[in-house]
Amino acid sequence: MNISCIILAGGKSTRLGHDKVLETVGNTSLLEQVISRIDPLSKEIIIVTAKERTFTQLASRPKVKVVSDIFPGQGSLGGIYTGLVKSDSFYNLVVAADMPFVNTSLLRYMIGICEGFDFVLPRVNGLFEPLHAIYSKNCITPIESILNEGKKVIVELFKYVKVKYVEADEVDKFDPQHLSFFNINTKEELELAKKIAAGAAD
To answer: For each of the chain's 202 residues, which pLDDT tens digit applies?
Structure first.
């Protein structure tokens, strides 16, 4: 299946105090960690960011294109909308740029079960993971309507499209520690990510 990947990199990193996606985890930046993990699955990689941001270090990656938010200031939902509009694929994998341990096998499994659905996302312990999900282009119109109503909550989309949940037992087959959903907002989380990458986490 031809699928594109949308990486959301528009956050302001207010809790960390600086641009977190360029922080190094392992031997590369957070952003490049994510790219390397989703690259085998994607025919193109779309990085959605604020207008003032550029990623010159990605210039040598022909598969990667950087686009600016169509709905600036509208959070993840605005970024997802932008990525879907700019994508060449009907199905699109969406992840956040601060999730360095996304599991390629889990993502490949999700791609394999997405046909016939518009929104495929993990549901673990009653929590949804909409930034580790697959969206079809059928989501574009309802997302635009939600944003035009002044709403930013991704779960609003559930009412308008065909949803497939990936349950905890399915996730556990590929990622029993659920590290795929680990994201970095604080210095403590950044340090923990470095330990995990080094194989030194408890």
So the answer is: 789 999 998 755 444 444 667 767 777 778 888 998 999 999 999 999 877 666 666 666 778 888 889 988 888 999 999 999 999 999 999 999 989 899 999 999 999 999 999 999 999 999 999 999 999 999 999 999 999 999 989 999 999 999 999 999 999 999 999 999 998 878 888 888 888 887 844 4
Instruction: Name, in order, each residue with C-beta under 8 angstroms of 194's C-beta and a sequence gap of 6 or more.
Output: 25, 26
In a domain, 180, yes or no: yes
Measured between alpha carbons, how far is 35 from 69 in angstroms, rounded to an integer? Answer: 19
Instruction: Write out the residue range of the structural domain in which residue 136 sits.
Output: 3-197
CATH assignment of the domain containing 52: 3.90.550.10
- 202 is a domain residue: no
What value does the CA radius of gyration of the chain take, rounded to a whole number of Å? 16
171 neighbors 129 (Cβ within 8 angstroms): no
User: Has residue 177 been placed in a domain?
Assistant: yes
Hey, how many other C-beta atoms are within 10 angstroms of the C-beta on 52?
Answer: 6
Total domains in the fold of the chain: 1
**Sequence-separated (6 or more) residues with CB below 8 Å from residue 18:** none
83 in any annotated domain? yes
